[in-house]
């Protein structure tokens, strides 16, 4: 006993950290051998870091009317003739520095995408757990609701909801709370993706012996679902979440392009593309093209990371 007690602290001290275990395990090994995943993660980290550091890196504040001069509107990037010094990516139709506006817009698009996925995951996981564990009539009702939800596209639901919101509350109130409206509608429109996946996992897990064991110990359904079944359902949830972040960013950009998203005074990537679309034929292509390239690259690297996560977490697809 004394020897074991003396050795335990040494063993604990030698035990690698959780991050080191992951890096040395199958996930880290697969990541190191996948150049597409490495490049995608590097690009995503760079874009995210630039967006988060927008107040520090941006030379101008696009939210501050005092820093905007309408006389500086539609100046081209630095590599095009007629550019204005100090605006290396040019300016938009309002005279805002496009580099600064893209940094702030990317931060806003990422925030909306991540928060919308949190709403989706909370609703979908909760409904999926209850549906799969309880079963019976409850399962049938919840899955029929999911079927009805899936019969409408995300954009259709969002367009109807946001149009009614603008009509009920007015443009000023909508512009003030547009971020919250977008997060809510994108989150509510996509919860069935999570619910169906979690339900299928719960149906398989609740028949296993460890669930019967915790029932015998007297644990309630809530604890069984959250503490025991849910941790075994995390792999597909991670995969869905990665893809859904990209989908949420695209949905926000599409709604902003249609005039139902972020107002011009609160630039996102979608609102920037929308604002510049009216000027693209007149020669001011950079207002739409540059934010569009940033949006495409951001969504592409997130989808590539999602494909890698899916392959690693699925034993049937993972090849080592």
TrEMBL record:
Belongs to the binding-protein-dependent transport system permease family. The chain crosses the membrane at residues 36-58, 108-136, 148-168, 174-191, 237-263, 283-306. It is a multi-pass membrane protein. It comes from Sagittula marina. Pfam families: BPD_transp_1, OppC_N. Residues 106-306 form the ABC transmembrane type-1 domain. Keywords: Cell membrane, Membrane, Transmembrane, Transmembrane helix, Transport. GO terms for biological process: transmembrane transport. It is found in: Cell membrane. This is Peptide/nickel transport system permease protein. CDD domains: TM_PBP2. InterPro entries: BP-dependent_transpt_permease (IPR050366), MetI-like (IPR000515), MetI-like_sf (IPR035906), OppC_N (IPR025966). PANTHER family: ABC TRANSPORTER PERMEASE PROTEIN, OLIGOPEPTIDE TRANSPORT SYSTEM PERMEASE PROTEIN APPC. SUPFAM superfamilies: MetI-like. Its main location: membrane. Gene3D superfamilies: MetI-like. GO terms for cellular component: plasma membrane.
